[in-house]
Amino acid sequence: MTRWIDELLGDLGVSQPGRTGQPGNTGQPGNTGQPGNTGQPGNSGRPGGTGTFPDGAAFRIEIPSVEGPRVLDAVLGAAEAEGVTVNRVSQGSGAVLLRASELRDMAQAGYEAGTEVCLFVGPRERYGPGAHPRSPDGAAHGDQVRGVRQLRYALEDVLRAVEQGIRSFLVADLGLLRAVTAAQARGDLPPGIVWKVSAAMAPSNPLTLRVLEELGGSGIGGGGITVNIPSDVTVAELGDMRASSGVPLDLYVESPDALGGIVRGHELGDLITAGAPLYAKFGLRNAAGVYPSGRHLEAVAAANAAEKVHRAAVALEWLDRLSPGLAQSKPGAAGLGVPVP
Fold first, then answer.
1. What backbone torsions phi and psi does residue 60 show, to the nearest 5 degrees?
2. β-strand 249-254 against 224-228: which pairing, if any?
3. CA 21 to chain centre
4. Where are the domains of the chain?
5. Which of 16, 75, 171, 256 is most buried, by CB atoms within 10 Å?
6. What is the pTM of this model?
C-alpha cells in the first residue's frame, strides 16, 4: 500500500488491517485475519474489557420492531417468562403514528421496567408523496428526511414524544442528526436523550463511524449516540470498527430477511468481545413485515417480538457456555434512554 495512504488513515485514527503490527495481523502463519483468533469458538482473541458501558457492562439486549404499547407489553411479558433482561426496545414505524396516550403508555411501561424505549422519528421520504424512495434504485433514501417542511415535521415529532416522556430516538438522516443535537445544545430539547443511528444509515467502514460519532455530539446530560452497523459484519470488521471509536455499537445478531437474514446467536460471545460496548439486537428471520404497523398488524408484531426474546434467551445460553463472564447491564443502567414519568 502507498505510504501516504497508511499515514492518512493513521492521522484519521483508523486501524489498518493487514499491515504489520496492526490489529488483525499477528504475522503468524495460519492467522485468520481476526485479531489474535485462535480458531476456537468463543475466543476471538481480543482481550476482555476492551470497552464497556458507563455501568461497566460489556453488552445490552435490544428487541426491535416494538411498534406500540401492546407489543411492548408482549416483550416485557416474554422477558419475564424467559428470564431475560431487555435493556432496550426500538420501533420502526415512527412516533408520528402513535397517539399521545400511546406514547405515554410506552413511556410509563419503559420507566417501570428500566428499559429504554427508542422510537423512530416518523416523517421520512418513504411516507411522502415522492416516487423516488419507492423505486428500486432510490430505496436507500427511504428513511431520509426530504425538504425543509419534512425536517420541521420530524423535529416536531421528536418534541411531541419528548413531552410524553420518551428519551430515545432512531435517526436515519445526517441533517436531522445535526439538527437534534444542535437543539439539545441550545436547550430546545432536554439533556439525556439517546440518538440511535438507524441500520438504514449504517456505516460500512471505521472512518464513517467516526464521522457519525462526531455528529452525535458529546452526550449532553448522560445521553449520547449509538450506531447500528451492518448486520453481516465479520468479527474482524467489527474489531476494526471498535478500534476506531468508543461509541456503543448496535448489531443485529439475528436480522430480518430485508437485512440479510443473518442468524448467529451462537456467536454472541465473539461479537461482544470484539465490539463491546455492544447492543446485541435480535431481529427475526422468516417473519412477516410489520412496517408501518398498527392495530391491524398488532397480533403479528406481538408474536414476532415474543419470539425475538426467545431467540435472545437461546443466544444467552450460548454466551454462558462459550464465553462466560461477559457482563450485561441491569435495568435502568446509566446511559440508557429510559423514559421519564
1. -140, 155
2. parallel
3. 31
4. 60-322
5. 171
6. 0.87
